[in-house]
């Protein structure tokens, strides 16, 4: 019996040490050296060094003076992140989208872009399409008493072109740049 027990126990302890301690430490060390910003959560800091959020996670911005992110089924909570799991045929989903569209609709601008009405798979997608950001320009410009041209230039500076896929705008980074350009009066 000890002929089998001793090697099995030794192997379990060795593999626990390798996979539970050595490997995670090596991967963490390589990540810290090669990609320190990403390994530490892609945190966005203000001028005083205070963390304002992660560029990887959407946040709720309330009020007309801010660009709003996509809706979140989990109300932007990372612990309960996830989709609403409502099927396209579900009347509750159609009603929620209709309500959101009615709330955000501006007649002179046409239909509300879909990424302002639908949630992402995680409910925490920090990016919007440039069209969804452009739809919000008049509201933000009026609230901040800025010209739409100044905001459009800010949006163009904040637009990212990923290696694969369409251009996107990170809403947190855009709102941080907006606050530096013209601080909100609240």
3D structure, described in words:
The chain is mainly alpha-helical. The protein has two domains: 1-40; 41-181, no CATH class. It contains six helices and five strands; from the N terminus they run H-H-E-E-H-E-H-H-E-E-H. It has helices at residues 2-34, 36-39, 91-104, 130-144, 148-158, 171-181, and strands at 43-45, 51-54, 127-128, 159-160, 168-170. Helix 4 (130-144) crosses helix 5 (148-158). The termini are far apart. The mean pLDDT is 88.
Spell out the key features of this protein.
2 domains; mainly alpha; elongated; three-stranded antiparallel sheet; two-stranded antiparallel sheet; 186 residues; 5 strands
Category by helix and strand content: mainly alpha
Q: Main sheet: which strands, in order across? A: 3-5-4
Q: Could you say which overall geometry the principal axes of the C-alpha atoms support?
A: elongated
- Which stretches are poorly predicted, pLDDT < 50 over at least 5 residues? none
What is the helix/strand order?
A: HHEEHEHHEEH
Percent strand equals 5-15%
Q: Estimate nothing, just give the exact number of structural domains.
A: 2
User: Mean pLDDT, nearest integer?
Assistant: 88
Biggest pleated sheet = 3 strands, antiparallel
How far apart the termini lie comes to 74 Å
The oligomeric status of these chains comes to single chain
Classify the helix fraction into a percent range. 40-55%
**What is the total tally of β strands?**
5
Radius of gyration: 23 Å
Separate helix tally: 6
